[in-house]
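USER:
Try writing one entry.

ASSISTANT:
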Amino acid sequence: MFTGIVAATGKILSVQAQGTGADAGVRLTIDAGSLDMGDVAQGDSIAVNGACMTVVEKTGNVFNIDVSRESLNRTAGLEKVGEVNLEKAMTLADRLGGHMVSGHVDGLGVVKKFAPVGESYELVLEAPRELGKYFAYKGSVTVNGVSLTVNRVEDTASGCEFSINLIPHTIAVTTLKHLAPGAKVNLEVDLIARYVERMMNMPK
């Protein structure tokens, strides 16, 4: 489990194919940046751009993860060298500063707008239609591993459009600063909303 509070931004240093077939995954080598890796061991979980991954090797502050082709097909930002948001799995002693995040990406969103509004930024995303039912005004969503609050929701002909306000601190300490219209992002819907939807649709 995670909180959606990004602990550091790291960088994918290399992407190594794990085979030659169309189904081959990749091994990523990631520099954890300022993230304290002292208590991280092989087999531990780290959220990379919101996707829960397993540490398979670690040398100092550099670690490796294996990403399956299925995961690559369902996520964004894990297929090339570049900056990523990082968060270690939470412990029972941690503060839940964001919301409960599983690290399981539900779908890809597309940036429709990213522009300054006063001292903050407005981020407008379009999500797949099937995820629209999970978004609500003042509800929670995880975007590339960042716990955020939904300010507006509108169902459209092509999906579900929602707006988020990003404060300067969030811009400064995450990779969201690099977003631009047309970019794809990893979305995880609120965990509680998923369970409520399931209970509401159980057969009587």
Summary: The helical segments are 69-74, 168-173, 191-200. The two ends are 31 Å apart (CA to CA). The chain has two domains: 8-88, 107-200. Residues 8-88 form a domain with the Elongation Factor Tu (Ef-tu); domain 3 fold (CATH 2.40.30.20).
